[in-house]
Amino acid sequence: TMDSLFSSLDQLNTVDFPAAGILSKASCDLYRIILIKEQKTWTEAQSYCREKYKDLATVQSDEDRAKLKEAANAVNFKSVAWIGFYRVFWHWSYQNTPISYVMWGSGDPNIPDTDEACVVVQTSGWRDRLKKQTNIQFIKFILTELIHTTKK
Fold this sequence. Notes:
- The chain has three helices and eight strands.
- By secondary structure, it is an alpha+beta fold.
- The strands form two sheets. The protein has a four-stranded antiparallel sheet with strand order 1-2-8-3, sandwiched between helices. The chain has a four-stranded antiparallel sheet with strand order 5-4-6-7, covered by helices on one side.
- The longest helix has 13 residues, at 62-74.
- The radius of gyration is 14 Å and the shape is globular.
- It starts with a helix and ends with a strand.
- Residues 31-128 form the C-type lectin domain.
């Protein structure tokens, strides 16, 4: 059941956002956002999320971004976190979804053409980083999403 699934999540090193529902109009999926308190490279984070949840988070509209920001503010999240946006022609990790929305911070993206670029999210916007970058000094959470229901 969903209750037992969510109970098992509490045993992990996670923080569940109180504003749990983000409805993506593009896919009609309802996502639950979970912060993982582990420091990983983007590739490690993606593997972890795919193994234990669904994938790294996607943000496909201003509405999604606003709900994500509201949820982050509710838990006083002030750091940066990986999301599932990366470049081999910029797209989302989850099902290789094409991009329909971006929220770059000033000056980004700024890494020259490479398939090693991926994205972190922070309050000032999205920033491109290299996949191998661990950012131990300031990454505190990995942002993931869990699909727990699909709207019919």
